[in-house]
Design a protein that fits this description.
The chain is mainly α. It is built from five helices and no strands. Helix 1 runs antiparallel to helix 5, helix 3 packs antiparallel against helix 4 and helix 4 packs antiparallel against helix 5.
């Protein structure tokens, strides 16, 4: 595997780990004071009212993480076509979600940056690696 594709794989794993963490925040720890501060949830009542939505959204993030991580595992196991398909689809979906988040307001810029940086880098290096093969 080329150096560029190795870099892409590393960033896909990092993107997956970030999304596992987001899953934990949204689906497991949503009502805790720390998580309420992170997401700007003003009260316990608001956290309870949005809990089922956050729970669902957390699993969406977990499934994207699984796709990216499983894709890298498949690539390392030699199943490159299926592996890269999963890596690209998962990281492109992560990046797309970050772009949508930016579109919802400037207050979400930092969150979108955290959510979308590693997927963007993974996609960039996957493209460069598949194009130039260095």
């Amino acid at each position: 595997m080329s150096v560029l594709l190795v870099i892409s794989s590393v960033f896909a794993v990092l993107a997956g780990l970030v999304h596992v963490y987001i899953f934990f925040l949204e689906s497991v720890a949503w009502t805790s004071p720390r998580v309420r501060r992170i997401f700007g949830i003003a009260s316990e009542t608001e956290a309870q009212a949005t809990r089922s939505l956050a729970f669902n959204q957390g699993f969406y993030n977990l499934f994207l993480a699984i796709g990216a991580l499983l894709g890298v595992v498949l690539v390392l196991a030699g199943n490159t076509a299926s592996g890269w398909t999963l890596v690209v689809f998962s990281t492109a979906s992560m990046l797309g979600a970050a772009v949508v988040l930016v579109g919802t307001g400037r207050r979400y810029l930092n969150s979108a940056f955290v959510q979308g940086s590693f997927p963007l880098i993974a996609l960039l290096f996957a493209f460069l690696g598949s194009t130039f093969g260095v």
